[in-house]
Design goal:
nine-stranded mixed sheet; alpha+beta; about 20% helix; 54 strands; nine-stranded parallel sheet
């Protein structure tokens, strides 16, 4: 629970109010789930607590006790009400004035008596309600950090009618949001019978929730009980803090005040509170409460009604996820503790010798000169050696990413320090001096990324660094911002010289110490703070930050100020986001290509500019399991490019753990092996079994590269996660709501082993049909989802593609550039084939033909290709293209986009099945992710049964659009690989398959020797096609066979 104290400067002012509140309290005034303001002294007992009129929390009814919990607390359930006294229509919707009727909890401050409420109905699927002080301007998250918000001018009314009803009651004021014309379901957001509290440094907003729904979001934390938010009433703190992610159930590096609710019928909606102040989200059985320490109510209710629609609406507000460069989807290797350039080269060479793909080599702070940003150690990582190393990487089509921390060493003569001072680029403390903290290099200042001066300064430093060594991307760490000291005003130790490190007590592990050695917050320092600044340092309501710490604990002090006057108290959670935005903008100019940035700290909208890793986990089996829910959880808040440190960051991993971890981690959206200084090396080639697991999993990832890249394209267009919980695709299946140890990578289901000593696992397969990409076996669940036991010895992971999808795959290689240049194989996964009624009992047609037997060469090719997969957007969101039943010809302009929508993909009905997919390809050089028509290949397959003969006939159509004036090879802006092979999965009793190819008005018969029928595996392989995709044209492969009347 929240542990709340008041500073000495203001406690006397509030003492009388506390006493009055306590004297009239009753048991009904106390809630163990409510906001807890400490009442009485430390160590107070139950009897004295309750005698004083306070509430006592320990007991059977209390949630799990947390560190920092107030056991004796002020009464917290008395009503707080406003009334709506005036309303008027606006261009965007309506607005009104709220007047306070009843006040409560004066220990949290005085109520703001007059508020303004504004309802913006500009977007038909998003209800936007804002509430703030009528008379005084309050802090609001800067819109400049969210380009999509800035682009949508307020007050511009949509031509589309609102898809919701926003109703309100005037006295006492409450409001509700419900879907329009949906009398069956309850309101999505309702404040009826809930308190509305609005004070200077505390507001509380609550809504009723469906008691049987599943809730997700409220990141970032390592959740020991899984992805689903628990309803224990235990508040979830949101305040960015440098806490090891190995510590479960506490606030971590990011804050994402967004909750997604999935109801038992699968209908979904979201609630976003766009506020960057310290806050808690508390969830009980029937109520969700936001408790926030400042700013304003900036509320968005997202109508859904599907999970994918909710994420599209969310990212319409905070920004669509960035499309990353293709190379960043490869495998990455890092370690804190590589001692020199030669060791980096050895690691790269050993990965190559072990035949384990490696795309990117990273360096931690080891490469720096005294941990100074933008510098190189003159001995171990000299300029000449580093330039030669990076040049060799680039010649091998590999990449280099170094770490950069925000803390700039206080060191006269160090260019980054001198130039930052001269440009006034640093955040200042309460005295107006640059805020002094301590990180790895010692005493440091922190750039102000909310100021023009700070952003310009940062770009200049990154430019100079790139001229020193041409890095390909950047890793921005410690950006919460992390600070080894806690204090609002800090000083160097007496007699210490700013440019000397001798005053730092060194540590054998780090070369410096992460114990604070500055002098901070002396009595004389604190006396300089005004009463209001004292409240910013220790507000009336203290959220449970890092188990009861001050908000300024190990970060920039909350009384610090940005150049525009913004207080760190309000802007703290935006530090990592603002640094990522500044870095993204700078790299666009410096590198001239689409940037790759990895950040630890995050806020809403970070996905629009950066990838994220889940921070400092540990080499334990629990951390492996937790990494999945952490990865999935971040994708649900608009940050899809995410992964965990594979094999564990802290502690020594084991052979078995590392092998199982790479089998799972190869299918994170972001895949990197990384561990800490002093821990045993864990490169994948160090153990034979781990090397084998790494080869299998990473090569499968690389074969799935077009699938993965298309999934990121879909995220960039629609905001959807890349790694999805099963319920995201199957919200109507309640079994999926509690599953967080499997996930969907596009249309591919990943089921890893996550427990020590196990070689089998139970895996759930939702309704449909699932094809194993490792051994070509099938799990048929067309009559309902079921749990299946998978045999997964060391080095193996469950990888199943979803029926109804078409996945492109390519050949595995050591680097992604070679994968991209290889031919495409289109794997068509057919749903369950149900014959028409008149053929239901016919297992084979009368006309017989010789059963095709795979030749050794083609069988070998199939064994190779079947261990891979491809890309597709989830089948429920794709549409069959119209106008493909007859002649195929060139598609003028954007005809593909404009084709009339028909039935959904993945259809399985008597006599007909369908499958669909997409492949996204671009030149990977453009700064913007603007899609050319020639970037997206649409795929549609259909199998029909002849009503007279019972014979099945099928076709696969590929269509590529072309915009007028689009330039490039043969009119295309994008160079496409050839389509060489088509694999049809799910056919049965097929004989004498005849294949015809139609393209450009010409028809060709595919030679019989290029068609292989494998009856045992119910699949047909059509190889040697060598088809070059061309802009503005479609291609059709059609086939027929005798003997296809039976069920598959």
């Amino acid at each position: 629970m929240a542990h709340v104290r008041t500073s000495a400067a203001v406690s006397a002012l509030l003492l009388t109010a506390w006493a009055l509140a306590a004297s009239v309290s009753t048991a009904a005034d106390c809630s163990v789930s409510g906001p807890k303001k400490e009442c009485g002294h430390a160590g107070i007992g139950r009897e004295i607590c309750q005698t004083n009129g306070c509430c006592w929390s320990p007991g059977a009814a209390a949630p799990d006790v947390q560190g920092g919990e107030a056991q004796c607390f002020q009464p917290n359930t008395q009503p707080s009400e406003y009334e709506l006294v005036t309303t008027k229509d606006t261009d965007a919707g309506w607005e009104g004035v709220l007047r306070n009727l009843t006040s409560t909890q004066p220990e949290l401050g005085s109520d703001i008596t007059s508020l303004i409420i504004q309802a913006d109905k500009s977007l038909p699927s998003i209800a936007h309600i804002s509430i703030t002080d009528l008379h005084d301007t309050r802090w609001r998250v800067p819109g400049s950090l969210f380009p999509s918000v800035e682009a949508r001018a307020p007050g511009v009314q949509s031509h589309e009618a609102a898809g919701y009803d926003l109703k309100y009651n005037s006295t006492p004021f409450s409001f509700s949001v419900a879907r329009a014309n949906d009398a069956r379901s309850s309101a999505l957001f309702s404040t009826s019978k809930q308190r509305l509290i609005f004070k200077d440094l505390y507001f509380e907003l609550s809504t009723s929730i469906n008691t049987n729904s599943s809730l997700f979001g409220a990141q970032e934390r390592t959740a020991s009980k899984g992805l689903t938010l628990q309803r224990a009433g235990r508040p979830l703190a949101m305040w960015n803090h440098d806490t090891l992610s190995a510590n479960a159930d506490t606030n971590l590096y990011g804050s994402h005040p967004f909750v997604l609710e999935v109801r038992p019928d699968g209908s979904s909606h979201g609630v976003l509170l766009l506020n960057s102040n310290a806050m808690e989200v508390a969830i009980s059985n029937d109520t969700l409460s936001w408790r926030v320490t400042g700013g304003m109510i900036d509320l968005y209710v997202l109508m859904g009604p599907t999970p994918s629609a909710v994420l599209e609406q969310l990212t319409n507000i905070i920004g669509r996820p960035a499309l990353p460069p293709l190379w960043s989807l490869g495998f990455h290797q890092c370690k804190w503790g590589y001692n020199n350039v030669e060791e980096l080269g050895e690691v790269v060479a050993k990965y190559k010798a072990a035949d384990i793909p490696l795309e990117v080599m990273w360096t931690d702070i080891d490469y720096m000169d005294g941990y100074r940003d933008f510098s190189l150690d003159p001995n171990s990582f000299s300029k000449g050696k580093m330039q030669a190393f990076v040049k060799e990487l680039h010649a091998s089509k590999q990449y280099w990413v170094p770490i950069v921390d925000p803390g700039i060493k206080v060191d006269p003569g160090y260019p980054a320090y001198d130039q930052g001072l001269a440009a006034h680029a640093f955040i200042t403390d309460a005295t107006g001096q640059p805020f002094l903290g301590q990180v790895w290099p010692g005493a440091t200042h922190f750039p102000d990324f909310l100021s023009k001066e700070g952003v310009k300064y940062w770009e200049q430093q990154l430019q100079a660094f790139h001229e020193l060594v041409p890095y390909d991307g950047l890793w921005i760490d410690m950006d919460e911002a992390s600070n080894f000291c806690t204090g609002d005003i800090c000083h160097m130790p007496q007699g210490a010289q700013p440019n000397a490190s001798a005053w730092l007590r060194s540590s054998a592990q780090t070369g410096t110490s992460n114990d604070c050695q500055l002098v901070c917050d002396t009595d004389a320092d604190l006396a300089k703070l005004t009463p209001q600044q004292q409240l910013y340092r220790d507000p009336p309501y203290r959220i449970n930050n890092a188990d009861g710490q001050l908000l300024g604990h190990h970060t920039i002090g909350t009384t610090a100020t940005h150049a525009d006057g913004s207080l760190e108290y309000n802007a703290h959670n935006l530090y990592g986001l603002s640094e990522a935005v500044a870095t993204y903008t700078a790299l666009q100019k410096i590198i001239g290509k689409r940037p790759f940035i990895l950040t630890r700290s995050s806020f809403l909208g970070t996905g629009a500019v950066a990838a994220h890793w889940t921070g400092d986990n540990a080499a334990t089996w629990a951390d492996l399991r937790w990494s999945i829910s952490s990865t999935l959880g971040m994708g649900l808040v608009g940050l899809p490019f995410v992964g965990a440190d594979i094999c564990g960051f802290s502690g020594d991993t084991t052979e078995e753990l590392c092998g199982r971890w790479i089998s799972a981690g190869a299918f994170y959206p972001f895949s990197r092996n990384h561990n800490t200084l002093g821990a045993a090396p864990q490169e994948l080639y160090l153990w034979d079994s781990v090397a084998d697991a790494g080869r299998r999993a990473i090569k499968m990832r690389y074969q799935l590269l077009p699938h993965l890249y298309t999934a990121f394209h879909h995220a960039n267009e629609h905001g959807s996660p890349v790694a999805k919980p099963l319920w995201f695709a199957f919200p109507h299946d309640p079994v999926t709501h509690a599953i967080d140890d499997q996930w969907l990578l596009g249309d591919v289901l990943i089921s890893p082993v996550l427990h020590q000593g196990e070689t089998k696992r139970e895996a759930y397969f939702p309704k449909g049909k699932w094809y194993n990409l490792n051994d070509n076996t099938t799990v048929d669940t067309h009559d309902g989802g079921k749990t299946v036991t998978l045999n997964l010895p060391m080095g193996h992971v469950g990888v199943h593609m979803m029926a109804g999808s078409i996945l492109p795959m390519q050949q595995p290689a050591s680097v992604t550039a070679d994968v991209r240049a290889s031919p495409l194989t289109l794997v068509v996964a057919l749903p369950h084939m149900e014959p028409q009624r008149q053929f239901a009992n016919t297992t084979e047609l009368s006309q017989k033909a010789e059963a095709g037997k795979p030749t050794p060469a083609i069988d070998q090719q199939q064994n190779q290709s079947d261990s891979s997969g491809g890309i597709a957007v989830h089948s429920t969101s794709r549409k069959i293209m119209a106008g493909m039943q007859t002649e195929l010809s060139a598609i003028p302009g954007m005809q593909t986009q404009a084709a009339a929508e028909a039935r959904q993909c993945g259809i399985s009905e008597p006599g007909r099945v369908t499958a669909c997919g997409q492949v996204f390809v671009d030149n990977d050089e453009r700064l913007e992710a603007t899609e050319y028509a020639s970037s997206l290949l649409e795929l549609h397959a259909e199998i029909l049964q002849d009503t007279a003969t019972g014979q099945w006939e099928g076709k696969l159509v590929s269509s590529l659009g072309k915009r007028t004036g689009e330039q490039g090879t043969e009119g295309c802006a994008v160079h496409w690989p050839e389509v060489d092979t088509i694999v049809l999965k799910g056919l049965t009793n097929a004989h004498n398959v005849q294949v015809q190819f139609d393209h450009g008005g010409m028809q060709y018969a595919v030679p019989h020797e290029q068609v292989t029928v494998n009856q045992q595996q119910n699949q047909v392989i059509i190889s040697g096609l060598q088809h070059q995709v061309q802009c503005g044209q479609s291609a059709l492969w059609s086939w027929s066979s005798t003997g296809w009347a039976g069920q598959a």
